[in-house]
Amino acid sequence: MTEAKGFVVPPGGGRVLDMAPDRFAALKLLSGETAESVMLFVETAPAGTETTFHLHRDSDEVAYVLSGEITFKIGAEVTVGGPGTCAFMPRSIPHAWKNTGAQTGEVLFFYSPAGAGKFFEARLGQPAASITDAEAIEMRKRHAGRSSARPRSEAERSIVG
């Protein structure tokens, strides 16, 4: 592991991950650049965008809503938040989120340590349509169990989506 050095990412800087039509992430701090300390990106998520109910085994996750309406499910708790809402999703606690608003939203995501963010870094350069759900789950497993997705039960789907 290399030693972290300070740096600044200017507006519009960072690598862009194309995730789906009109859905992308601007990766601002990559794990290798921060000596595995943190990983950070800003995701643009169209209305209806959602994640699976999942957990990270060795990274805490923070989400900060920049715009839009995002519904978070953390454990059994469901909370709807708009701009300025900050969600803490500790490692080993299942969580999910969905853009439940009518407009495209933007959310800043932060992982500490950086491990869980490697899932997104691994997808850089791959066309969004080329990654199936099964491949995404396998990618999560490859990153040392840092993320673990599982199929959502009907109850979980009805709460978040």
Folded structure, characterized:
This protein starts with 14 loop residues before the first strand and ends with a helix. The protein has a single domain (15-160), classed as Jelly Rolls. The strands form three sheets. Strands 1-2-3-10-5-8 form a six-stranded antiparallel β-sheet. Strands 7-6-9 form a three-stranded antiparallel β-sheet, with no helix packed on it. The protein has helices spanning 118-122, 133-142, 154-160, and strands at residues 15-20, 23-29, 39-45, 54-56, 60-67, 70-74, 77-81, 86-89, 95-99, 105-112, 147-149. Mean pLDDT is 84; it is low at 142-159. It has three helices and eleven strands.
List keywords for this structure.
single chain, 161 residues, mainly beta, Jelly Rolls, six-stranded antiparallel β-sheet, three-stranded antiparallel β-sheet, 3 helices, 11 strands, 14% helix, disordered C terminus
The third-level CATH topology is: Jelly Rolls
How would you characterize the largest beta sheet?
6 strands, antiparallel
Structural class: mainly beta
Rg (CA only): 15 Å
Number of strands: 11
In the predicted model, the low-confidence regions spanning at least 5 consecutive residues are: 142-159
Strand order of the largest sheet: 1-2-3-10-5-8
CATH class, please? Answer: Mainly Beta
Amino-to-carboxy terminus distance:
40 Å
Shape assignment: globular
Number of domains: 1
Number of helices: 3
Order of helices and strands: EEEEEEEEEEHHEH
> Could you estimate the helical fraction of the residues in percent?
10-25%
